[in-house]
């Protein structure tokens, strides 16, 4: 199995169906335990805690850099010392491998 961190996002707009929940659960097993699938099975999310605003914003900028490079952008909710990251492939109305690739790259920020 190829490590998600070494893969790159592929365009799936109009070309693929959302990932079935069983496949998403399997892919979730390749991420940090803190990631979870929402109740609808259409997104994955994880919350991060930081010491201060400066660390939070450095993280947000690093995630933005990853997202820009992969052309796959998360929703983020940012506070003074926290950031919640949520990935979903809006073009297909659910999860794709792209969501897990980007989440793995976000995890790698802490490796």
What does the secondary structure layout of this molecule look like, with pairings?
Elements: H1 21-28, E1 36-37, E2 44-49, H2 53-70, E3 75-79, E4 82-87, H3 97-108
Antiparallel strand pairs: 1-2, 2-4, 3-4
Give the low-pLDDT segments: none
Shape by Cα distribution? globular
Question: How much of the polypeptide forms β-strand, as a percent range?
Answer: 15-25%
The portion of residues assigned to helices is 25-40%
Strand order of the largest sheet: 1-2-4-3
Continuous helix count: 3
Number of strands: 4
Global structural class = alpha+beta
Mean pLDDT rating: 90
Give the termini distance in whole angstroms: 20 Å
Largest sheet, in brief, is: 4 strands, antiparallel
The ordered H/E elements are HEEHEEH
Q: Work out the radius of gyration.
A: 13 Å
Structural summary, described in words:
By secondary structure, this protein is α+β, with helices and mostly antiparallel strands. The protein has helices at 21-28, 53-70, 97-108, and strands at 36-37, 44-49, 75-79, 82-87. It has a four-stranded antiparallel β-sheet, with helices on one face. The protein is globular, with a radius of gyration of 13 Å.
């Amino acid at each position: 199995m190829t490590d998600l961190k070494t893969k790159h996002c592929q365009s799936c707009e109009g070309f693929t169906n959302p990932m079935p929940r069983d496949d998403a659960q399997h892919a979730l097993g390749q991420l940090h335990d803190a990631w979870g699938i929402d109740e609808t099975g259409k997104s994955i999310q994880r919350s991060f805690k930081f010491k201060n605003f400066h660390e939070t914003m450095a993280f947000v900028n690093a995630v933005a850099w990853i997202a820009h490079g992969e052309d796959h952008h998360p929703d983020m909710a940012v506070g003074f010392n926290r950031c919640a990251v949520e990935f979903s492939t809006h073009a297909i109305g659910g999860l794709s491998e792209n969501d897990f690739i980007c989440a793995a790259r976000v995890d790698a920020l802490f490796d």
